[in-house]
Amino acid sequence: MTEISERFRDSGLAVTNCRLWIMESLIAAPGMRSTVESLFEALRHRGRRLSLSTVYAALRVMEAHHLVGRDLDGKKIIYWVPCTAAAGTLRFICRYCKAETTIHERTLHEALYRSAAEHGVAIGPNAPTLLITCQQCADRRPGVHKERRPPLPSR
Ligand SMILES: [Zn+2]
C-alpha cells in the first residue's frame, strides 16, 4: 500500500481520482505546499484536467478530513500536506551491523525531496533511506573510514 493510500485509509475518506491527483501534485510541490492556482497549474501540467471549482471542492473535503491543511499567506490561500509518519521520515541503515534508525525531521526530508527534484530525480513517497556506517562500526573496524581515501603517506 502506498503512503498516499494509507493517508486516505487513515482519514476515512474514499480515494477518488480527483483527490488522488490533488494529493500527488501537492506532495510533489516544493515543501509540500502550494497555492490553489499553482496546484491547478501543476495538475494541468500532469494532464489532470479538473476544473478550478472541482479542485476547490475536493480540497475543502480533504481539509475537513485532515488530509490537507490550509494557511492564509497574505491574501493567498496555501494548502499543505501535514506531516504524517512517512512524510517526514528518513531512515538510516548501517551497512555493517544493519542497525536501523528512523528519524522524523520534516525540514531535512523536504530539503532532500527538493534538492533531488532540482537534480531531476523525483523521490517517491516512501521514506528515503540513507546507507551509513554507524560510529560503533567505524570504531570497531579501523579501516572503515579510510575505504575511499588514498592511503596515508608512510613515514
Ligand atoms: Zn553499525
UniProtKB/TrEMBL annotation:
Organism from which the protein derives: Thauera sinica
Origin superkingdom: Bacteria
SUPFAM superfamilies given in the database record: Winged helix' DNA-binding domain
Protein name according to UniProt: Transcriptional repressor
Pfam family, one: FUR
Lineage: Bacteria, Pseudomonadati, Pseudomonadota, Betaproteobacteria, Rhodocyclales
